[in-house]
Amino acid sequence: MILDNVRIYQPDPTYKNEQTYAVKVEGEKIEAIYESPYEGEEDVIDGRGRVLCPSFNDSHMHLLRYGLLKKELDLTQVTSWEEMKAVIENHYDELQQYDWIFGKGFNDGNFDDIDHLLTAEDLNEIQVNAYMYFMHQDGHECVISEQAMELLKEEEDFKKEPDEFKEKDEHGNWNGRFKDTAVHYIKHHFWGRSAEDAKEALKKAMPHLSQHGLTSVHTDDINFIGSYERLWQAYTELEQEEALPIDVQLHHYVFNIEDMKSYCKENRLRTGQGTPKVRVGSFKIFLDGTQRLYTAAMRNPYPVEPSADGRLIYTQEQLDEMVKYASDNDMQVAMHAIGDRAVEQAITALEKSKEATKRLRHRIIHAQTLAPDLIARLRELKPYIETQPSFLLDEWSEKGKWTPESLLPYCDAYQSLLKEHIPLTLSSDLPIGALNPFTTIFTAVNRTDLNGNPEGGWMPQEKLSIKDSFLGFTKTPAELEYREEEKGKIEPGYQADFLILDKHPEEIKTEKLKDIKVLETWHRGKCVYRK
């Protein structure tokens, strides 16, 4: 098949903007690229002068959670406690006693009919007799019912979770509200969806990925199914059924080194290995919490909460041991570190496994707060940094509440990292951040919200170019898969993953980047979406 009369855009000077080309696709690969018009004997599709570019690879998301939002109880649109109760009661009208209720995406901080955040006592107003679990919009907080708390009290391992992540009432008892790794524990230990449930949820999600030009994802899903084996089964069965229009790296979230040892003992596959479309990703490790809850570990107190500076989940010795064990067993690590104290801890652990950091391409996720000394150490080490620029849409005006003024220039310091040749990916953290990569690219390039605020961009010295933003969504994530020689570019021999766009990214004003539309998405030589 020849796709003729297309302009090619990718972040290198290989192709001329004014030239049109003919792209030959054979099976799952790009076989050749000719100047247009094509004059051979092959079947030709006229690209009508439109723009062809590499498809997107999102290096950090929670795809199963997103699919479950599409399939199960979605609370993202509720605006009050009364509305939330009504939605739950209408959704679960045939519950059996002691079933579980799952809801996701509420934001009670915006409810105007209650003057406090929800607790287990409030959930007693819901007129169903069941265990209840509701996850906050940002995924770092949940509220559970009193019945569910009774189950939790029987869990010996839950006592190991930091007390800071377990909210208490005035009497010192749990109030039903939990944060960060305590949330992950509850998700992971209290229920496990079947592989069939996961498949149905993922099928709900796939069209949304294709619509936005995503053909590869790296996803942390284990907490939403409870078992890596069932997770692997769900994805590989979709692949066998030809119902998987993406390539997937499946991360394994671990709580401690025993989880790592258990995986390595029971599984022979390591990072980058697997089937053609489904491969083992990283060991995912949470080092701290989130700034909204003042649980991200900072080296300075929070300006609006001087008594708080966050919490490290592991000692340095524990983390060093985990990173070394993963490295010795050919497993990549991806460490969630938002605060500068957590980033420093991650850097220290990676420095002690320096050669493995280079060989396995270990990652730090978020790294939202840095400082000159941390950037200098990252320059020597060069781990991969996974960023989520769309967070800035809502957070740029909040940064001063979380970070001392002197460190604000080092928040979300994308350009500073690239100047030191520290590899950077752009990603969504779906469903928390924006699914549409062009929203993320818009934010990375402009550093404003969608209305253009603040004028000129927040910390504008850290803006990325359009080309660097595209690299962060194409070639660089392929490096994390060890596949940069076969994926992420429009070149002969590369996997035929590409998009047809309605506009050329370099020929419009940067504030219009968010409006670019994907007209077609091609994955492994097949068109999986057409507008």
Automatic annotation (TrEMBL):
CDD domains: YtcJ_like (cd01300)
Entry keyword Hydrolase: yes
Pfam families, A to Z: Amidohydro_3
Annotated keywords: Hydrolase
Family annotation (InterPro entries): Amidohydro_3, Metal-dep_hydrolase_composite, Metal_Hydrolase, YtcJ-like
Xref: PANTHER family: IMIDAZOLONEPROPIONASE, PROTEIN LONG AFTER FAR-RED 3
Protein name in UniProt: Amidohydrolase
Species this chain originates from: Halobacillus faecis
